[in-house]
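Pilot study result, target chain (301 residues):
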Amino acid sequence: MAGRNRNRRDRATHRRLLPEGRLSGTMPWVIAIMMFLTILAAAAGIGLDRASRSLHAELAGRVTIQIIEADPEIRADQTGRVMTDLRRFSGVSHITLVDEADMKAALRPWLGEEMMDSGLPIPALIDVDLKPGVDARAYAAFRDSVTAIAPTARVEPHAAFLTPLSQLMRMLKWLALALVLLMTLATAAIVVLAAQAAHNSHRTTIEVLHLMGATDVQIARLFQRRMAFDALFGGVVGLVAASLVLALVAVLIRDIGSDLLGAAALPNYGWGVLLLLPLGGVLLAMLTARTTVLRALRRSL
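Predicted structure:
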């Protein structure tokens, strides 16, 4: 009976110090905004990392050969000889001749019907996949063998002209991760200010609790629990809002049909990371509030 009455008194003291169920304050909503932005930045970083890896894996070792020759017969002869020679090259894993009809269909919206019907010579395109491990010397031999057959041919590795795009994606990925860290620090700063304000506003109650025998750790635990509730509320709200935005973006990317944008879609582990962020926010709020209040209590003694 005495233990039950003591528990009731502890709960009453808790409600007086940090009222339960009060979500009208600004801190939960500020945390919700910060968590919303943090989840979006983390999703952008994970998506860009996946797209960068996919782009590198897809373009590494891919080469396009353009047989530029106005005479159709000479162009066809050079194309056939180049493909025959490449099949004997040990560093080549796959060769594909792009269909001329497909090239004309792709160029027609840009050049127009009149230009396409005027007999404009279309270069022959050969897509080549090189085996992993082809070094610079082997690649030079590959290029020389092509130009020996077709002097006007252009050998263009995909990675050469898409390297700036890959570098941009990596830079944006690290920028997104930096934003996540900045949002985390800002959230911790918000919790520190809220804990300090709560400590100052309940200083008299804290002194009474000290006179009743409460320790600093017990008092800090009250603030820690209150901050955890607020952080949990803000984290859930931010997670729901960010999930809706990410779902909308995924629908728009799917409608566009771009392979590069599709590669930036969140993988399964990415959703797991995003779900863990609100829990990390709760732990951060609890530890920050506990540390802040304990320091404030030690300074006030």
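One observation from the pilot: Residues 158-201 form the longest helix (44 residues). A full batch analysis is planned for the follow-on phase.
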